[in-house]
Specification:
mainly alpha; 0% strand; 82% helix
């Protein structure tokens, strides 16, 4: 184990996994509390459509992926805010539309491009130093904003109308939270792929929810679980020649069911009256 940890591309993969797993776990707490589970799936496919478009026109993929992701969450938020469509319906429409765009862009490519499919299924072992640097900067930016507005984000996650009545700029903060979700997904695309990345947003915080009733504790458990399963998934995939994205997600799922089985909340309910 110690020998192959000295391999440079594996070191980069572990750092990328820790960044993606930790960041998804932070933002995922608000996603779970606010009931935005499906938005991760829609935004990940929108970001993938941006990646395919970038490769089609020959530009760097990350800025285009960010643009597609942000456009999707903002349109979704606006449709819900104006009462024209429920959030899950608008996400579902944009989910299918952006995936159709991605397939269209792939079909327009004249040659097969393996890098595109790395963003769809995950290709963390091929993360470059440059991609790692960009991801690190985005992680610092997102975490910085979360730390700055954590109390407000928790407030709007529980009750946005009450937050507005209390003088909190809930509308702006909600769109800011949606933007952070989009940035988080783009950072994590290369780790788990567009198909599985939203699982990283949901499973660690959902697991943490089983273990504690404290918001601070939920955030701490979520980040610890996200980083642990992401790094362990990378090591397992390298050791046993497994696809990295599925290894991370299945490991996280196993931890979730263990948490459900031994949840202090559940054990208290089953205990003596």
């Amino acid at each position: 184990m110690a020998d192959f940890l000295t391999v440079s591309f594996l070191q980069r993969a572990l750092i990328a996994a820790a960044l993606a797993g930790g960041l998804c776990s932070v933002i995922g707490v608000f996603v779970v509390l606010r009931g935005l589970a499906f938005i991760g799936a829609g935004t990940s496919h929108a970001a993938f459509a941006g990646v395919t478009f970038a490769y089609l026109i020959g530009v760097p993929p990350m800025p285009v992926a960010i643009a597609f992701g942000l456009a999707t969450v903002w349109i979704t938020g606006l449709l819900e805010e104006r009462g024209r469509m429920k959030l899950d319906v608008s996400i579902g429409i944009l989910y299918t539309a952006t995936m159709a765009l991605a397939i269209l862009f792939i079909g327009m490519m004249k040659t097969y491009n393996a890098e595109v499919y790395g963003y769809l299924f995950g290709s963390i072992l091929s993360v470059t130093q440059e991609e790692l640097l960009v991801s690190s900067l985005l992680v610092v930016a997102v975490v910085g904003v979360v730390l700055l507005f954590s109390k407000e984000f928790f407030f709007i996650a529980f009750d946005q109308k009450m937050a507005e009545a209390s003088g909190v700029p809930a509308r702006r903060l909600f769109f800011l939270l949606l933007s952070l979700v989009a940035l988080t997904i783009v950072v994590s695309l290369k780790t788990a792929g567009a198909i599985l990345v939203f699982a990283l947003l949901l499973i660690p915080p959902s697991t943490a929810y089983q273990l504690t009733s404290s918001l601070r504790g939920m955030m701490g458990y979520s980040v610890a679980i996200g980083i642990l399963v992401s790094c362990a998934g990378v090591l397992l995939s390298f050791r046993f020649d497994l696809p990295t994205g599925p290894a991370i997600v299945l490991l996280a799922t196993a931890v979730f069911f263990l948490a459900v089985a031994f949840s202090p909340k559940r054990l208290r309910r089953l205990g003596p009256a």
